[in-house]
Amino acid sequence: MNQHAVVSKFSHVKPGDTEFKGGGLRDFFLYRDLGIADATGGQVICHLVKANPDLPPEQGTGWHKHLCDFQIVIMTKGWARFMYDDKETLVEAGDVVHQRPGITHYLFDYSQDMEYLEIVSPADFKTVDVAPATETMPPVTPWK
């Protein structure tokens, strides 16, 4: 983590200032940058993530872990089903999840209206594919 960056920028991003767009970690999600990576000199990224209405869930994210110091997910709309290690976890609107550094996980199902706020440090965290933590996976719920 860039612990020596001087953080001297004020940031105030309004809903119309940035838009949801593709090009993030997953093509089946849309991302809205909230300006925090720039304001913190890369120490933290904060963005809104939502389901891409044109790409419903089929296979999910695959098993992976993030190389980071801190990560939380705050579900603001809808729901998502994750596997954290070998445990299925339903995360619904209003839930807050601290994903400890390096936890093996897999987002495999989510609602069409799913939207969450994600905060990660450092901003340029890496994602690494890993072997499945379990062979038993619940099914994806098709969008109707």
Description:
This is Cupin. Pfam families: Cupin_2 (PF07883). Residues 55-119 form the Cupin type-2 domain. InterPro entries: Cupin_2, RmlC-like_jellyroll, RmlC_Cupin_sf. The chain is mainly β. The protein has one domain (29-129): Jelly Rolls. 3% of the residues lie in helices and 39% in strands. It contains 1 helix and 10 strands, in the order βαβββββββββ. The strands form 3 sheets. It has a 5-stranded antiparallel sheet with strand order 1-2-9-4-7. A 3-stranded antiparallel sheet has the order 6-5-8, with no helix packed on it. A hairpin with a 2-residue loop joins strand 5 and strand 6 (87-92). The chain is globular and about 50 Å long.
Task: Give the secondary structure arrangement, pairings included.
Layout: E1 29-33, H1 36-39, E2 45-51, E3 64-67, E4 70-77, E5 79-84, E6 87-92, E7 96-98, E8 105-110, E9 115-121, E10 126-129
Antiparallel strand pairs: 1-2, 2-9, 3-10, 4-7, 4-9, 5-6, 5-8
Pfam families: Cupin_2
Domain Cupin type-2: 55-119
Protein name: Cupin
Question: What is the structural class?
Answer: mainly beta
Mean pLDDT rating: 91
Count of domain modules:
1
Distance between the termini: 42 Å
- Sheet bearing the most strands, described? 5 strands, antiparallel
Strand content: 35-45%
Task: Please supply descriptive tags for the structure shown above.
single chain; 144 residues; mainly beta; Jelly Rolls; five-stranded antiparallel β-sheet; three-stranded antiparallel β-sheet; 1 helix; 10 strands; 3% helix; globular; Cupin_2; RmlC_Cupin_sf; RmlC-like_jellyroll; Cupin
